[in-house]
């Protein structure tokens, strides 16, 4: 399963994540709320008031995952999942 996450901000430079692609794993029978990973991005813009936000853009049609808009924490919502996970940052 591939989950695509978009990292956004509203100024000149594109935010950059530490990795272009993450390969986390989810242990079978993990409870809802289990953190899968945290995406960390930085922005080279000079305005410190510009915030980076995160959102899942595709690859999550069953709603297995949710991402915190401000922190980039990707969490497990549904527990009937046992797949290899690839998270692509675009």
UniProtKB/TrEMBL annotation:
<dbReference type="InterPro" id="IPR015919">
    <property type="entry name" value="Cadherin-like_sf"/>
</dbReference>
<dbReference type="GO" id="GO:0007156">
    <property type="term" value="P:homophilic cell adhesion via plasma membrane adhesion molecules"/>
</dbReference>
<protein>
    <recommendedName>
        <fullName>Cadherin domain-containing protein</fullName>
    </recommendedName>
</protein>
<keyword id="KW-1133">Transmembrane helix</keyword>
<keyword id="KW-0472">Membrane</keyword>
<feature type="transmembrane region" description="Helical">
    <location>
        <begin position="63"/>
        <end position="83"/>
    </location>
</feature>
<dbReference type="GO" id="GO:0005509">
    <property type="term" value="F:calcium ion binding"/>
</dbReference>
<keyword id="KW-0106">Calcium</keyword>
<dbReference type="GO" id="GO:0016020">
    <property type="term" value="C:membrane"/>
</dbReference>
<dbReference type="InterPro" id="IPR002126">
    <property type="entry name" value="Cadherin-like_dom"/>
</dbReference>
<keyword id="KW-0812">Transmembrane</keyword>
<dbReference type="Pfam" id="PF00028">
    <property type="entry name" value="Cadherin"/>
</dbReference>
<feature type="domain" description="Cadherin">
    <location>
        <begin position="18"/>
        <end position="74"/>
    </location>
</feature>
């Amino acid at each position: 399963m591939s989950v695509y996450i978009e990292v956004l901000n509203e100024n000149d430079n594109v935010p950059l994540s530490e990795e272009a692609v993450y390969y986390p794993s989810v242990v079978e029978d993990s409870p809802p709320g289990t953190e899968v990973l945290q995406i960390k991005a930085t922005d080279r813009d000079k305005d410190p008031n510009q915030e980076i936000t995160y959102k899942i853009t595709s690859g999550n049609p069953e709603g297995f995952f949710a991402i915190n808009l401000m922190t980039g924490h990707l969490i497990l919502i549904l527990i009937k999942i046992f797949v290899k996970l690839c998270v692509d940052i675009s």
